Please model this.
Amino acid sequence: MKVGLFGANGRMGRVLIEALDQSDQAELSVATVRDDSPWVNMNVGELAGIGKQAIDCSAMSSLTAKDADVMIDFTLPVIFETNIAWCVEHKMPVVIGTTGLSEAQLATLDEAAKQIPIVFAANYSVGVNLMLSLVRQAASVLGHTADIEITEAHHRFKQDAPSGTAMAIGEAIADELGRDLKTCAVYGREGKEPERDQGTIGFATVRAGDIVGEHTALFADIGERLEITHKASSRLTFAKGAVHAAQWLHGKDAGPYSMVDVLNLKL
Ligand SMILES: NC(=O)C1=CN([C@@H]2O[C@H](COP(=O)(O)OP(=O)(O)OC[C@H]3O[C@@H](n4cnc5c(N)ncnc54)[C@H](OP(=O)(O)O)[C@@H]3O)[C@@H](O)[C@H]2O)C=CC1
Ligand SMILES: O=C(O)C1=N[C@H](C(=O)O)C[C@H](O)C1
Model:
């Protein structure tokens, strides 16, 4: 199966090249970069630091529908519309990992999924997708009495906050409790504040150094607290999950799919 990459030179793009090199079933067939990128014609293996590979990076404008069976897109929201429009126009299934998408962009994604198969997940690790079930269970038992706080930490280069995963954890907990995250979320605190409102879900963000990605959901009452934590120590975890998703997506009907579908995690 032929897999293509948008944004081959990004942090995730480079580890996706590595994950595809390690895959027995998926083969990297095209790796795009901006038309004016210094990486156009750079060998993908040399870009990823894994030794020379069969193909070089291509300018985005040279991409054709014959180049891949499925595309993978881990880029930034600024280029999201361009990439998804290309996939819709060329009837190309796509695995999307870009986070920080706006409400309008999520609506565009839903519209596109009426025409092409799309896997979209804020986090492609098995552990985080299991965590999304565990926090629901914790919320159903403790959530009506405990204070709920979600904390996340990432590297200094990350451009969106809170992380997509933190938002997905918040959505899962709010959904389980019948709350609307839009109205119950509190993002950071500063200065003099009234006593904590138990109906809220708090978010706190750390950006530092080279932290790959850490998330904790805290359920705290008087006398006890439960913390559910996931720590990613390698981006290869996300990349391997995305390659797995691409293989799973190949041949599927149009529709929106999640990593829970890919992993069949109906817990
Ligand atoms: N779902 C998941 O499991 C995970 C999701 N992510 C998400 O993946 C995304 C990428 O992360 P990361 O690799 O660290 O980010 P990087 O900043 O390292 O890479 C971003 C990529 O997008 C490209 N890009 C940015 N702006 C433009 C533009 N205007 N036109 C064309 N290309 C553009 C960059 O190309 P250029 O260098 O030329 O600008 C680069 O290839 C983020 O949204 C992150 O949150 C990350 C890890 C896991
Ligand atoms: O930007 C990152 O690096 C990551 N982004 C994703 C997110 O926003 O949740 C997933 C992972 O934590 C790494």
